[in-house]
């Protein structure tokens, strides 16, 4: 794995803040950000995702809150086709 730094929240203090990296081997995004509070996790569970999919958060996963102004650092494919599963 070789990580490439993409960006950091523009208003960061000196230590700890939303930061994003790209694994240039797999294309995965590595994100450090604020852990979502219980109210946010509960709302996400109430909204759900795709029918039949569990809303439990497994021990090996986290729900994070990524500030909108760090989205500028997320790489976009040349074609803006969204290939993800939006449940629709």
SSE blueprint and pairings:
Elements: E1 3-8, E2 19-23, E3 29-32, E4 34-35, H1 38-47, E5 64-65
Antiparallel strand pairs: 1-2, 2-3, 4-5
List keywords for this structure.
88 residues, 11% helix, two-stranded antiparallel ribbon, 3-stranded antiparallel β-sheet, alpha+beta, single chain
Structure description:
- The chain is α+β, with helices and mostly antiparallel strands and 88 residues long.
- It has a domain at 3-42 and 62-73.
- It contains one helix and five strands.
- The protein has one helix spanning 38-47; strands at 3-8, 19-23, 29-32, 34-35, 64-65.
- It has a three-stranded antiparallel sheet with strand order 1-2-3, with no helix packed on it. It has a two-stranded antiparallel sheet with strand order 4-5.
- A hairpin with a 5-residue loop joins β2 and β3.
- The relative contact order is 0.21.
- The model has no long low-confidence stretch (mean pLDDT 84).
In terms of DSSP E residues, the strand content is 15-25%
What's the total number of strands? 5
Distance between the termini: 34 Å
Count of helical regions: 1
The outline comes out as globular
- Judged by helices, strands and strand pairing, the structural class is alpha+beta
- Provide the helix percentage: 10-25%
Largest sheet: 3 strands, antiparallel
Biggest sheet strand line-up: 1-2-3
Return the string of H and E elements: EEEEHE
Contiguous uncertain segments of 5+ residues? none
Report the average pLDDT across residues: 84
């Amino acid at each position: 794995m070789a990580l490439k730094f993409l960006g950091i929240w523009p208003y960061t203090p000196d230590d700890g803040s939303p930061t994003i990296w790209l694994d240039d081997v797999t294309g995965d995004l590595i994100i450090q950000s604020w852990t979502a509070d219980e109210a946010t996790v509960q709302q996400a569970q109430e909204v759900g995702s795709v029918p039949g999919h569990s809303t439990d958060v497994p021990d090996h996963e986290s729900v994070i809150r990524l500030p909108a102004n760090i989205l500028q650092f997320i790489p976009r494919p040349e074609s803006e086709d969204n290939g993800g599963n939006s449940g629709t």
